Amino acid sequence: MERRAFYRNPVLPWLLIGPQLILVLVFFYWPTSQALYWAFTLEQPWGGGNTWVWLDNFIAIFRDREYWATVARSAFYAICTTGLSMAVALFLACFVDRSLKGTKLFQSVYVWPYAIAAPAAGVAFRFIFAPQSGLIGSINTLWPGIWDPSTNGIHALAMVIICHAWLGIGYNFIFFLAALQMIPRSITEAGAMDGARPLRRMFDLQLPLITPTVFFLLIMNLISSFTDSFGLIDTMTEGGPVGSTEVMVYKIYFDGFKGLDYSGAAAQSIVLMFLVIALTFVQFKWVEKRVHYN
Amino acid sequence: MTSIRLLSAASTIAVLSIATAAPAMAQTKFEFWYGLSGDLSERVQDMCRGFNESQTDYEIVCVSQENYDNTLQNTIAAYRANKQPTVTQIFDAGTLDLMLSGAYMPIRELMSSNGYEIDWDNYLSGIASYFSTSTGEMLSLPFNNSTAVIYYNTDALAKVGFEGTPSTWEEVETVARAMKDAGYECPIAFDPAGAWQWFEQFEAIHNQPIATKGNGFGGLDAEMVVSQGKFVDQLTWIKKMYDEGIIVHKSKDAGETANDAFVNGKCQITSSSIADHGTFGKQAAEGVHWTNAMLPMWSDTERTNSLVGGASLWTLKGKSEEEYKGAAAFFNYLAQPEQAQTWSTITGYVPVTMAGFEAMKANGFYNEAPNKGRELAVESLTFTPPTENSRGIRLGNYASIRAEMVKTIQDVLFNNAPVLESLQAFDAKGNEILRRFEQTYKGAQLP
Q1: Is B441 near chain A, with CB under 8 Å?
Q2: Which of B440, B441, B442, B445 to mutate to test the interface with A (most CBs of A within 10 A)?
Q3: pTM for the complete prediction?
């Protein structure tokens, strides 16, 4: 027996999805197609005209050693922020889930960082981490020169990664907590009666049961670290020192808007777009197989 | 009930729109976008108000876009959507793109076709040449212009027993060393992001080319030659001073900018724009005494004029005859000697015309604090007639090339990269940017 609801009116469904379709077309497909066109031309910034250059823009960026360094840096950045942010969030969520003293308070407090806009957090962290005057910078008075993100590229990258991870903790925390609370109490209680300590219960019971959430967060975090790092980097380091915090999205911004190389930036965004698509595809194809939804 | 309310709302809107539209009928409104913020933005608004009150035919609407980069980006976006302002302020590094775009109305043509007589030769040569074609025709109106100078803490100079101000790099080194020995922790404040004063101005006053073809004035096929000139030695010297702790890194990232470190008395020497002269005067901490001088030279070299920095006003294409008349009237208003003088007095930018400068000198403006010392900027700008190397920089996507220089200096200072190889790599990178630019404007001729 077929049980499908359908509209007799052929126009109504289109009217209903119309607004959403228009939004997607105007804010996604139209700019993307524009970028795609620019990526194959050399576009004059003031719009005086352009020349079709086939794949020249892509060849130019793929030949550039610095570009590959940016790609590798972005990958490193994505893995570190995602790993760090999710691990800390899960750790916190497990504690809050155990209904210890003050749980209610922590449930709301841990979400706060997510409400802070990245540039605002960037400015705050810039002051905190400033080597010559900041809070963290005061360790330089104990051990001179031990912390200096303004001249040391590794310090600068670590600083931005920590800040990005910190910003994401609230978001991850809420999802983890919700997932953990979905697990029937009886299961954990049964485990406890069998003598499993909290840590053991976490690894053998809770984690396997929340894999769909872990998988979802993994994708969201990876994508966000590729595309949302701009606000932080622009306010904290502007890609420096010596380009050591220049990730793909920041290079796109710089080449396009500061350097007025619209075509080069367009080609880079197309590459970034396909990278994110590929990443998501790979995760759905292989990682998801290990995820159990029921 | 609802329909009555709707009706009354609609009629209110209609009445309001008529009421607001009516006075504008008589006047032609046009927009001016600029890239200054804070105190300077207020000064621009004063100027706009002054213009609007001085006549009744036109109304200028002045919109701040916060900074030069935003102004350029927003103007481009607006131009592409055909919503551009009539007048916009574009900074030095964005000049060439606009020149090649054909999106502007040359200032000379605009003024003469609207019946205004401007004495173009009156503009300071160093300033005029930056905003002119290779044949010397001015395309935009110089507006807020500056050049770099060096600032000294006079107490620190006195403490190490130096009379006057050092005028050569050798003297700067001696003085700075003496300061270090006298217990000053930061003799010279240095920010690699200041490539404009530490690199471009150095090249200009030492008459060194940054690129062939007269720094690009001669054509889009210019090539970078920084690694073949004096800057190799200069960067080597900077690195040596940095390693010895005589030059100290100060930047926004480090927690304190070079300017802040100087006005707080923590650093004793810094180099910056003359436009900061006024700011330093206001911000200097209690007991910090300072003065400024022209940028130092190496003793075996002859000084040439320094480069102009800052921005100029461009008139964009695609507006109505009436709006152009308004823009011309506005430019004419700005060019009046008293306006030019007020602007320069209240901001710290240099007067852009010889007449303006002479008038300010005659008034005794430069004789006393807080303005004493500002005349050195004009002296530096007009020290010699502009040469091929000190006329200006006309290189494509120059903002990117400048950013590469900042990276290069950082790499040498912080990562001990070898100077010559780094500058050669910089030249190669710069050439890549230039070739790409040349290809984008294939067949275009420099005006």
Answers
A1: yes
A2: B440
A3: 0.87
